[in-house]
Amino acid sequence: MTLVLPTFNGFVQPAVAGGFRIDVRDTHANILARTGDATGVIAYGTDTEDIYVYDGASWQYYENTGFAYNLDDEYGIDVVPSVHLDASILDGSSSSNNPSDGASVATWGDRSGNGNDFTEATNQPTFKASWLNGKPAVEFDGSNDVMSDSDFFTSVDFSAKDATMIVVYQPQNDGSYSLTDTGSYAGDDRTFSGAGLYSSSFLNTRIVNGQYNEKYPANRSAATFGLRIDNSAVSYKIFYNNRLQFDHTSYASSHFQTTGGAMKIGCGDSTYKLDGFISEVLVFNTVLSDTDFNTIHSYIDNKYRVHQYNNVSGSYALNGSYSTTVTPVMHFSAQSNLFKSDGTTPADTEQVYRWTDKARGYHAIAGNAPVLNTNQINTSLSGVYFDGTDDYMDVFMLGMLGDFSNFDGTAIFLFEPDTDSAYEPVGIGGGSTGRLYNGSSAAYVDVFRNARLSGVATTGYFASTGAQLASIVSDKTGNTYKIFKDGGTNVFNSSQTANAIAGNFDDTRNMRLGSTTETPSYHLKGWLYEVLVFDEPLSTTNLNAVGNYISSVYGTSYTDIT
Amino acid sequence: MSKKYVIIDAVDVPLIDFSQVMETSADTLRYSVDGSQTFIKYEGNRPSFLDEDDVELTHSEILDVLSHEDWTPVDPL
How far does B52 lie from chain A, in Å, by closest CA? Predict the structure, then answer.
């Protein structure tokens, strides 16, 4: 047999029995070829560091990613996880083996190559074929569903007392749950419970002093849980969406203890079962580097569109002519960053599944998708049309996305109701009965409020038709609450006080485009063009910068606020 | 092409094939105030899981239905 090599600089490692061996593995760590195997003639390109394999019929090319472990074709890390459960590859081998939607999950295979599969004989969760961004997840019922690997902590050495764990999940309005059972503490531990943290992950006790401020973990939102335990640095850090939530050194070394046997997912020790979805679990018996930790979060963002915290500060260019001195937490513009469920750009009248903000890359994800209308305003500009029945888009984990610790904020949005007499274009905080407009000049607005106003008198308020710019400024420190329509003067006839609290950001009523927060209601029938949110009360100068930017782009009227 | 809307009983939600409708999932459906009914919307072909007697509504017709107290909570103003 004559082998015809591709043109390259390098050497050929022929098939040999024993001795030097080269493996070529796919992104799931499965062996594609090995020297010594019948099909394992391997050539190595010394200039490109790529691998060529003769499979018995032809030469195959494999790019050397340079990573110890490939999360997918784009992202890789320098450490192989101890276990990697990925619902997209439920058996740990191939997505083509995934079961049908609703099937019971008896085994969730480890795709790391370490064979740490999770199983359940009786209380099996179910397979959700299309969860977020069309990707699968495993659904736990909150009653008794659980999966476990009975010998995980005997198979994997955690004696160095280092650990990293990342879980991608979404509770179904579950306010007290545990994602995993890893620590020896047995009892009433859970990842999250109402106002506080009671985790015992990798501990022989539970943490009881964690209290959340505005950065609530998920009750309902899709989120990424992260844990890094570093014995040498003596740190125990919990993250949500790659933002540090809790840092407590005293738990790192003195309390580190695994179960010694089984690891479970979907539950705590025996109670606080998760009612919700888990799509991915990665566990390492090392402390991941910042680079690898961040890479995994980027992979998650790219795969599921579960956005990760992006701390950007300083001035922000609205366009080439206008800027603000502070960067918004998010800036959605209907002129860009709109995507269908397959990731492509929608055409006129097609559904918009994802709307990604221009400032920090955060996502609004369709609960029920609105549609794109091109050439809708100012001749050639687009709008996102919500039909007033059930369309809305969620911005998950609002409290994590900026610094709302002072409970201040500014929301500015350009919208155009399509003959709609009661609507909530942008829901932030509030509840299910607040709305920006209720068919009259009496205000029932709840944006950035714990409770809505109740029929407060206004002058020059919003209307059922026409493009309108709402600038809502909640200043908790100054205890003022103001609304401007198309700039000008505060619409309220009498001064209003601020009403924001930490609960505004607890994600049972976080941010929603097209409807109210808690239970979607007062759905907008009309178009959204621009939405900007800031985590502080904007100065008059900045308010006018945004207002004049909107006016110049969309041809809408605006009067400087003085 | 205009959308069509069909009100269905909540007990029939498990029968919905979400690949044939514009809603995303059972979790995002809008329900009546008493939780007994919901609706789906679609363009083009009528979803195969619907019964013959399920009535198609236009956009303006469904908006009229949704404006009633059965679908929008009465709020003490």
Answer: 23
Using CB atoms, pick whichever of B24, B63, B72 lies closest to residue A369: B24
Encoded tokens for B40: 């789906």
Q: Could you give the CA distance from residue A198 to residue A204 in angstroms, rounded to a whole number?
A: 12
| A37-84 confidence digits (pLDDT tens) | 555 566 666 566 666 666 666 666 666 667 999 999 899 999 999 999
Helix (H, G, I), strand (E, B) or coil at A275: strand
Strand runs labelled E in A124-254: 126-128, 137-141, 147-149, 163-171, 176-177, 180-181, 190-193, 196-198, 210-211, 223-230, 235-240, 243-247
Percentage of chain A with pLDDT > 70? 87
Residue among B22, B66, B72 minimizing CB distance to A368: B22
pTM metric for this prediction: 0.89
A2 band by pLDDT with thresholds 50, 70 and 90:
very low
Average pLDDT value for chain B: 91
Beta-carbon contacts of residue B60 (< 8 Å; ≥ 6 apart): none
Give this complex's ipTM: 0.91
Contact between B18 and B37 under an 8 Å Cβ cutoff? The reply is: no
Lowest-confidence region among A111-125, A248-262, A322-336, A533-547: A248-262
How far, rounded to the nearest angstrom, does the alpha carbon of residue A482 sit from its chain's CA centroid?
31
Of residues A206, A217, A212, the one with CA closest to residue A181: A206
Determine the Cα angle at A288 with ends A282 and A293, to 5°: 70
Confidence of residue A267 (pLDDT cuts 50, 70, 90): confident
Name the strands in the sheet holding A10-13, side by side, starting at the edge strand that comes first in the sequence: A10-13, A41-45, A51-54, A59-62
Of A172, A369, A387, nearest to B59 by CB-CB distance is: A387
Q: Is B73 on the interface with A (CB under 8 A)?
A: yes
Q: How many CB atoms lie within 10 A of CB A373?
A: 16
Task: Give CA separation, A440 vs A423, A455, A465, A481, A522, in Å.
Answer: 12, 9, 13, 20, 15
Q: Which amino acid is at B63?
A: L
